[in-house]
Amino acid sequence: MKTICLLLFAFAVALAAPGCRPAPSTEAPPPVSSDPRSKIPKGLAPVIDRADAMIDLKEIGTYYQLHQADGLAARDLVLKDVQHDDAKLYRAIQAGQYVLLNGDPARDASAVIAYEKDAPTKGGIVLPLDFVPRHMNADEFKAAPKAG
After folding, report:
1. Fewer CB within 10 Å, N- or C-terminus of the chain?
2. Which residues pair with residue 116 across a beta bridge?
């Protein structure tokens, strides 16, 4: 008798199961971001800050590369391009998070052309004229040639 009851119960559950499933969603999936920062897990604030600075300074370096032939006017043209293309980065520059130097991007490849605001005192991410962002401590920053 127990076996029959269990079989009837299993049969009833099997029949009811398809009706218990939620209706398929008609909403579009959220857009996939091309920004690599969106893939960094939450809770890694210092890592994210460093990753943000590396990404932002790499982007600034790309704009400087585009304006190498413009010499001393490169900084102003970089700012104009960033303002047009990346409002978030432009706000960070305007807020003083990054410092862009007036200088000829065609000069010495080891000269620093942009850096995080705390690089002179605490060290931080800098962008030399070879356009490869890297970390420098405060002493290295003070010793490094500056583009402006």
Report:
1. N
2. 98
Predicted structure pTM score: 0.64
CB 108 within 8 A of CB 101: no
Dihedral angle computed from the Cα positions of residues 44, 49, 54 and 56, in that order, rounded to the nearest 10 degrees? 130
- 116-135 burial, b at 16+ Cβ within 10 Å, e below that, comes to beebbeebbbbbbbebebee
15 within domain boundaries: no
Which of the 8 DSSP states describes residue 60?
H
Q: How many domains does the chain have?
A: 1
Per the structure block, which two tokens stand in for 125?
A: 């991410």
- 127 inside domain: yes
pLDDT, tens digit (0-9, with 9 covering 90-100), for 50-73:
678 899 999 999 998 888 888 788
- Asked whether residue 131 is domain-assigned, the answer is yes
104 contacts 71 by C-beta, under 8 angstroms? yes
Helix (H, G, I), strand (E, B) or coil at 133: coil
